[in-house]
Each structure stands twice: as structure tokens, then as C-alpha cells.
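Let us walk through a complete example step by step. Step one is to write down the protein sequence. Step two is to encode the small molecule, S-adenosylmethionine, as a SMILES string so that its atoms and bonds are unambiguous. Step three, shown after the inputs, is the structure prediction itself.
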Amino acid sequence: MVIRLRDWTYAQPVKVAGPEDGCQFYHWMDVPHPPPATGYVTVPGAWDLRGRFEDYIGGVDVAGKSVLDVGTATGWISFEAERHGAAQVVGLDAADDVVPQHVPYLRHGDRDRPATPAAGEYMPFRTGIRRSYWLCHERLGSSAAVVHGDIYKAGEHISGADIVIVGQILVHQRDPLEALLQCARAADDTLIIVEGSFETDQPVMKFCGLNGIYYSWFLLSSAMYVEYLRLLGFELKSVTKNLYRCTHADATPEMEIWSYVARRVGPTLGRP
Ligand SMILES: C[S@@+](CC[C@H](N)C(=O)[O-])C[C@H]1O[C@@H](n2cnc3c(N)ncnc32)[C@H](O)[C@@H]1O
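Step three: the predicted structure of the complex.
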């Protein structure tokens, strides 16, 4: 199928001179030098997923498929999907007016500042991440598109994705179940959720925003994914766990991340 937008429009590319030109990198990226130079520069980010695409998306074949990359950040998933033969790639990331949902600590860590950013305080970081996306987009010669919107409205505005990849974004949402419902609505066939998780036969969610971790809310249990995905019209096909290199200050150097792959077997409530 072809991914279509309803009432949202694709973002326009931004010209970025190089990694030092106002960029913030979420993903570690090998950024090609501009022609006529050859080779690339490795730019550090928070997550080094290089060479791990198949693991990350649970071994799903994206060739010839339309792929929606929810929470694209620096865009590594989008660019890898393209490199692996996806027919169409669309990234979704937060629009200017989407305020990050933070655990409402008065103070966090030793930085002695309010945890919840005031209106607009998140924009410089978000702009920097977008700039890293556009730099990589140009240097990699990408044809991927990106739309700035809101995961909580994804199902209303985006349709026709063969594959929807929901990578490490649910943990940052206060209502991950609504966010996942919206992603399910946009998915015609395959839903891939890449996230921290835990094993239990109880369909539960665990709060993980303790100890000043203001940007994380919940992890869903393995049974929660099985049950909730079924309710959304999807059957869980595989679950894999892998370790990935993370250089984020609050993280351990190797983080265990789970990849849930589910296929559509029935309708999703509210899907046109
Ligand atoms: C932790 S990064 C995940 C990057 C990538 N998906 C991956 O798996 O490596 C989460 C991304 O989700 C975006 N995001 C957060 N809240 C959002 C929202 N409400 N709607 C759309 N994107 C959002 C953030 O801006 C950020 O780029």
C-alpha cells in the first residue's frame, strides 16, 4: 500500500552544512562527506544501532513495503529501511506544539532545575535532532519523507503503511496504550514494537519513572503485549531480545531491548 496523509503535510528539508551546524544526534550515524570527498565521519549519539537493523526490527523483510517509522529522531530506522529496499518510507516525529510528556518531578538529578520544561524549552533540542535528520537525509541521498505531528493522532492522519515501526517511543508516553492504538490504526499488515519489556504472564505495566528518570513512564509486560495486540486486531508472531550499545548518560552501556512483531488478523477499533 501507499502511505497517505490526511490534513498533515510533509516537512520541508532544511539545509544543514555539517554535524556541527546546530545538530543533535539521537542515533550514532556514519555521515558521508559531501562530494567530491569520499568516506564518512562517525558522529556519536545516544544509541549506537549501526549494523543492527535486522535485530532491531525483529527480522522483518521491509523490501517493497511502505514503512512508517514512528518517532524517527535522527532517522536511522528510516534510512536503514530505505537501504533494505522499502518502497516508501515515512517518518513521524513531534510537531512544534507537541509538549513532551514528562514525569512531574519538581527537581531531578543534581541539576536542580524543574523537570518539566516550560513551554518551548524543549524546542532547541528538538530542532537539533531535526537538523541531524536533514543532514543525514541529504548526505545519504534519502528519498524518505518526514511529517511532524503527534503519535496520539497518528491513526487519524496516516494510513496505508504495510509496516509500522514503533521504536522506543512508547516508554516516553503517559498513555502508551492510546499511542499504540493510534499506531495500530495506521498499520495495514505489520506492527513492530521495539522497547524495553519484561516477562510475566500478567498483562501489566510497570512504572519506570522513579529516581529522577523524568522522561520514562511505563514498560509493558510480555503478556500485556500479547493481550493488548490481540485486542487491537494483531497476533504476536515473534519476540526477540537483544543488547544494544547506549551511550546516554543515565543508561548502562548495553541495554536489553525487545522486538515484538505482530501481524494484522482482524480490525482495529476506529480504523476507517
Ligand atoms: C527515543 S526516540 C526513538 C528513536 C527511534 N524510533 C528509535 O527507535 O531509535 C523517540 C522519538 O519520539 C519522538 N516523539 C516523542 N513524543 C512524540 C509524539 N507525541 N509524537 C511524535 N513523536 C514523538 C521524539 O521527538 C523522539 O524523536
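Step four is interpretation. The chain has one domain: 4-264.
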